[in-house]
Specification:
Helix content of chain A: over 70%
Order of helices and strands of chain C: EEHHHHEEHHHHHHH
Radius of gyration of chain C: 19 Å
Radius of gyration of chain A: 19 Å
Largest sheet of chain C: 2 strands, antiparallel
Structural class of chain A: mainly alpha
Strand content of chain A: under 5%
Strand content of chain C: under 5%
Largest interface: A-B, 47 and 40 residues
Largest sheet of chain A: 2 strands, antiparallel
Chains: A mainly alpha (312), B alpha/beta (400), C mainly alpha (294)
Number of strands of chain C: 4
Strand order of the largest sheet of chain A: 1-2
Oligomer: heterotrimer
Helix content of chain C: over 70%
Distance between the termini of chain A: 8 Å
């Protein structure tokens, strides 16, 4: 326990102090958005063992809705975010209801294909701007009081949201609801025989995950001031899977670490090596699946924790 | 405890990387090039464009106001988010003084918004969309080599007047395609023509067969190709393959010499196209063409020549006003006359559009071509006003 | 002129014809996927990449070694299948005892690597591959002009699909394969080398993808991205047909190509999504797919 408090303490200080040290706040905020996205995804993969292969659908559609309402219709920032999350939640309910009936790879295939459907709808719809995307999304202000135009202010806002969601996810996993999810993950037939309406629990987990992913998307749209087809694309879905795997699914900090590493790699490498970014990411996938299944944080926990890995 | 040590590592890594860039921005003049380096438009500009900018920097002497000139480049992969975020990052972190915009109107529109927000001069050369100096204009955007209005006033006008009254468009499904289709439609209608239909095609499509079939079943006389780069060459090849060019006249609304070269004169002969520059126009253009050819083994396209010219004009303006201050440089660019191998008596209008002579060309038949890259004959010379319109675009917020 | 839904008949026939050509590609590709999944339980996300590598094998063969199209039809699938077998031996083999999700993720990673390498070498835009001499020219069908090559694609795909179906469902080899998937240990006890069969089957599925790639090369231009956009549609086709069903893959592939073609005439904007909509409907009504066994 002592160890993890120290870790969180240091990370917290680093996060608060970073903009003052000259770290690019927009990049940090973007990182936190993706970390949130990965935490949402981990709720499904790590804690319920459901591999959603099209999670970008919720991330991106929320980004579009928020961006559109805020820039075209002049909605307030908070209202725009809430609307985006609501749409992501709705999508989660619809797609979840169809997908949850099946398991394992079938579930993955269905989520992937339905996400592709969302992609094409976003491509065709007028309000998304198609290939051009939504540009120049204004950041507005929090409840009309605190303007978010300064990059550092936006960063702290995203940081606050991230911390809130992180604590929320921990609460869910440790709650009775979370324990039922764990039971389903470990032995679904037994959970059914114990009388749990397994599909319902899975659907709730799915919708929660989709909603948080939506929040991450809305925040990203405001941070970077645009929402484009990349946000609903197969590439982004693949990215979040990689972040979670690499960081360690089934741990709390894993997705955060994974998001940090992947984004930093992409940022650092894109100018220098161009197409090799894909190759490196693919190689990391392969390595993670073959020999590094616990991910970075998972491996650390295994090596250095003297207690069972319920901490972290 | 060891846990902390390990947790610090990822933080440190991304802190170092995401932190302030190594460049000391103050003692350099930083020019950026964000372009499609590997996709549909890679041959129109791409590496050749980078080479052209380097030639310009070298010709200018490598320094301006005592500071070294540095060029940053990145591939936007036809994604507006990559273009916009890189521009923003270079402006925030690398002290960017000017951005050259390559192909893809959608990306350029996104980047023009960043230009306005960060107050960095943005010279759009590769993109065609006229809205860059219309609804999307900013005080910091210059649209340099050509635009969709000029293309329509050239190519569409010639084709309609030659009898091509009914049109069907194959349109690249993003800002450039739609604006080009709109411009050509306006010209067709103004000359007694009619548009029978249009179909939107995703950027990067390689198999146009179903779209071409739709065009054919419309019964239109003209196949309006509102696309460019490999989209253009693939759609034309498809049209030839399916025998559609026998019953419809293809309108190459935007074609570069790189496209004609890859299509070969056999396929492309007889096509009308509009361009702002051609390597074989006069002694000056030939001289530049030869220097470029020696390096790249191909003749330069209009865009690549535009990159060279725009870079020099910017550096001249900086030297003239003695500073890289964006407002002062923009004022100078809008004041000066542009007289170089790219344009004669060109000037930057109030809405940011560089007004200069445009040429309507026709692609020669194989028998008419006497030497390598001898592809065009000049059909019509349009003055700047004729090509771009004599008044600034009223939809531009700067013109009020 | 006769019209259906207000659209002239020649237009419909033309799009249906093109739809049949696309359908042949879908059928061939989903066949390879169904073979690999049905017989090995692996979701081969790298299928699109193998399709792309097959096309590139033909392109490189022609550019660097002067290998003509007809030889490429044989050599490209063989060489890509070899690569597939290497991947199976080095990576996939170790994942069989684990959750099938790992196989999916691994092949996803392999696809990224393959695409990235090709994109680095060749750029993202398409390379031209010429139609072979023998198949140039067109059939004038009246309602449209159909390039001979496209007709050849349909004939070749349907033939290969037919032969594969026959091999799996009607021959002793096929019976052995199917038995091995039901109960590997029992079949092994009969002295049959099951790992070898598994390796060979994966190779065969990959070869089918690569063959589709060679057939596609003159039509769609050889590009590193050609597989990634196609693979998701093919997965949807396989899900519709039933994930383990060979006949399901062939029939759904062809039918969906036709449906897509028809949609292009009456409601073009929906042509991209019609496959996914159908998939959602099929899943709600018949979760195992049209021909699937559950």
């Amino acid at each position: 326990m002592r160890g993890s408090v120290a870790v969180y303490g240091l990370l917290g200080i680093a996060a608060l102090v970073a903009p003052l040290l000259g770290v690019y706040p927009v990049f940090m905020a973007q990182l936190l958005c993706f970390a949130m996205f990965a935490c949402a995804f981990n709720l499904l993969l790590g804690y319920t063992k459901m591999l959603s292969f099209g999670h970008a659908a919720y991330f991106g559609s929320s980004a579009y809705i928020t961006g559109w309402l805020v820039s075209v219709h002049g909605w307030g920032t908070l209202a725009g975010i809430l609307a985006g999350v609501a749409v992501a939640m709705l999508l989660g309910i619809v797609i979840g209801a169809i997908a949850v009936r099946r398991q394992g790879i079938y579930f993955a295939m269905i989520t992937m294909a339905l996400a592709q459907l969302v992609f094409f709808i976003c491509l065709q719809a007028d309000f998304t701007g198609g290939e051009n995307g939504l540009q120049g999304i204004p950041r507005g202000s929090i409840a009309g009081i605190i303007p978010l135009d300064r990059d550092a202010t936006m960063y702290y806002f995203v940081l606050a949201a991230f911390v809130a969601i992180y604590l929320f996810v921990r609460r869910i996993v440790r709650s009775p609801f979370g324990h039922v999810l764990e039971a389903i993950r470990e032995n679904e037939p037994r959970a059914i025989s114990l009388g749990y309406k397994v599909d319902r629990y899975k659907l709730v987990a799915f919708v929660l995950s989709a909603s948080i992913a939506g929040l991450a998307g809305s925040l990203k749209a405001l941070t970077l001031s645009f929402a484009t087809l990349s946000d609903v694309s197969q590439g982004t879905s693949g990215d979040v899977i990689l972040m979670t795997l690499l960081g360690g699914s089934g741990t709390f900090l894993g997705p955060v670490v994974g998001a940090g590493v992947v984004l930093t790699l992409q940022q650092y490498l894109s100018e220098r090596v161009g197409a090799w970014v894909s190759v490196i990411i693919g190689a990391i996938f392969v390595i993670c699946v073959m020999i590094f299944r616990r991910g970075i944080v998972g491996e650390i926990q295994r090596r250095f924790a003297h207690r069972p890995p319920a901490t972290g | 405890m060891k846990i902390q040590r390990f947790a610090i590592l990822p933080c440190a890594v991304f802190g170092l990387v995401a932190g302030p860039a190594a460049l000391a921005a103050g003692d350099q003049v930083v020019i950026g090039d964000i372009d499609d380096l590997s996709g549909v438009y890679a041959d129109v500009n791409g590496q050749g464009g980078i080479e052209a900018v380097n030639m310009a920097i070298a010709d200018f002497g490598g320094t301006v106001l005592g500071k070294k000139i540095v060029l940053l480049t990145v591939d936007h992969q036809n994604k507006p988010d990559i273009g916009a975020s890189k521009f923003r990052e270079w402006a925030d972190q690398n002290g960017l003084n000017m951005l050259l915009g390559g192909s893809n109107t959608g990306v350029s529109i996104a980047m023009s918004k960043v230009a306005a927000a960060k107050k960095v001069p943005f010279i759009a050369i590769g993109a065609g969309g006229a809205s860059l100096t219309g609804a999307d204009c900013t005080a910091y955007t210059v649209h340099y080599a050509y635009d969709t209005t000029a293309l329509a006033n050239g190519t569409a006008s010639v084709i309609v007047k030659n009898g091509g009254k009914t049109w069907f468009f194959l349109t690249a499904d993003y800002a450039f395609g739609t604006q080009l289709q709109d411009a050509a439609t306006k010209v067709a209608l103004a000359n007694g023509g009619k548009v029978l239909g249009a179909v939107r095609v995703p950027l990067g499509t390689t198999d146009f067969s179903s779209f071409l079939l739709q065009a054919q079943s419309s019964g239109a006389q003209v196949l309006g190709l509102a696309n460019a780069g490999t989209d253009f060459s693939n759609s034309l090849k498809g049209a030839t393959e399916f025998g559609i060019t026998k019953t419809m006249t293809p309108a190459a609304l935007l074609a570069f010499i790189s496209d004609i070269h890859s299509l070969t004169l056999q396929t492309a002969q007889g096509l009308y196209l509009t361009t702002g520059w051609y390597w074989d126009l006069n002694e000056e253009t030939r001289a530049f063409g030869k220097r470029y050819f020696d390096k790249m083994k191909k003749e330069p396209t209009m865009d690549q020549a535009g990159y060279y010219s725009a870079t020099l004009q910017y550096l001249k303006a900086v030297k003239a006003v003695g500073t890289t201050d964006a407002d002062k440089v923009m004022a100078e660019l809008k004041k000066a006359k542009i007289n170089d191998m790219f344009a004669k008596n060109g000037y930057v209008r109030a809405d940011g559009l560089m007004i200069h002579t445009m040429y309507v060309m026709q692609v020669k038949k194989p028998a008419e071509s006497k030497y390598p890259w001898d592809y065009y004959k000049v059909i019509k010379v349009m003055s700047g006003d004729e090509a771009f319109g004599s008044q600034p675009d009223p939809t531009c917020p700067l013109i009020k | 002129m006769t019209t259906v839904f207000g659209v002239p008949l020649p237009a419909i026939l033309g799009q249906l014809m093109l739809g049949l050509v696309n359908g042949s590609f879908y059928a061939l590709l989903s066949l390879g996927l169904a073979v690999i999944f049905g017989l090995l339980g692996i979701v081969n996300f790298a299928h699109g990449a193998f399709y792309m590598l097959g096309a590139f094998a033909a392109y490189i063969g022609l550019q660097a070694f002067g290998v003509n199209y007809w030889f490429a039809l044989l050599l490209a699938p063989l060489s890509v299948a070899l690569l597939g077998i290497v991947i199976e031996r080095l990576f996939l083999r170790h994942l069989y005892r684990l959750d099938p999700l790992y196989g999916l993720l691994l092949t996803f990673g392999i696809a990224l690597i393959a695409e990235g390498i090709m994109r680095d070498q060749f750029g993202a835009s398409g390379k031209s591959y010429p139609v072979p001499e023998l198949l140039r020219g067109v059939f004038n069908l009246g309602f449209m002009v159909l390039p001979i090559y496209r007709a050849w694609v349909v004939v070749a795909s349907v033939t290969v699909c037919g032969i594969t179906w026959f091999l799996i469902e009607r021959t002793r080899l096929g019976a052995t394969l199917r038995a091995a998937t039901e109960n590997a240990q029992l079949v092994q006890a009969f002295g049959i080398n099951v790992p070898l069969i598994v390796m060979g089957t994966y190779g065969a599925g990959v070869a089918l993808a690569a063959l589709a790639g060679v057939l596609a090369a003159p039509v769609v231009q050889v590009s590193p991205l050609m597989g990634s956009s196609l693979v998701i549609v093919v997965f949807a086709v396989v899900v519709i047909g039933g994930m383990g069903s060979i006949i399901g893959a062939i029939v759904s592939g062809l039918t969906l190509g036709l449906i897509e073609g028809f949609t292009k005439v009456i409601y073009p904007e929906a042509s991209n999504i019609v496959v996914f909509v159908i998939m959602a409907v099929v899943l709600i009504w018949r979760p195992a797919g049209l021909f699937g066994k559950e």
